[in-house]
């Protein structure tokens, strides 16, 4: 009897794999609140179909700060169940829930509409990201020093293709997480940006140069070929691993999600795998927490802001890029964190008087302490 029980337990354990333990909240039209996911239409797009989705963590309280997980979705591809739409994103939710982060899913934009195939207008898509990430940080306590970019499939390519599109947006991120595909690995025939392969890879190499030593986690389902090892070979053969702290997370999707295909998960090429409890999901969560803790190859600038009489000034905005900003406290102190090495222009301005702006230029290769400012007429 005991032997039969043991055999039964083994069979069941091998059959069911890991169980799903999370469901992504349905997007609503309500106002943002703790534990909910809402649709946000930016003011500039009120008369269009363009929106982003915003999730605030369950422990959210106004006045506190939180990491931010920014996500780009995959292409519309019916065999996998991927619609390419913002509302149907899955990858970032489990991470946000686990580490207590804000989750922001951004669209790809073309002439006032969201597109479900590739990038739309690349410049508009990138500018939309920059403006709305800043607003989420300002309005909901996103920590400018702890902003991550993640993506699945098209979105995985977009992590570098869009996230490292130029120096301005490349400066935003603390870390980069991709699942299934990677920028520069294979040719995308029929596109101007991804073909021919030599031209595509040269552009991808330039984007990789903007990583500037930050953390990257590359995740890949390996059961349907050797594409994951193609990614690793591509990175190592070109010495791209010297440009960033790169880690890999290879696994067979069928070890994580049982019974593929199913109505919920019709294909192993899926962004739903983090909704299932697994050791591979734990690898992802730990990578995010470790990156937040160590912030590798990023630096800080700090100082005090005073008026002409030497009095510390509270509420002054200090910024070094579109999304890296801080507000001086009651002692006039500010601290910018998560900045990459290189030349920086630090600007301070009084929100009550926009004409009061001062800037200083520095070269950042180690933490800078004591970059003080004096603002007159206040």
UniProtKB/TrEMBL annotation:
InterPro entries, per database record: AB_hydrolase_fold, Carb-bd-like_fold
Domain of life: Bacteria
UniProt keywords, alphabetically: Carboxypeptidase, Hydrolase, Protease
A molecular function (GO) term: carbohydrate binding
Name of the protein: Carboxypeptidase family protein
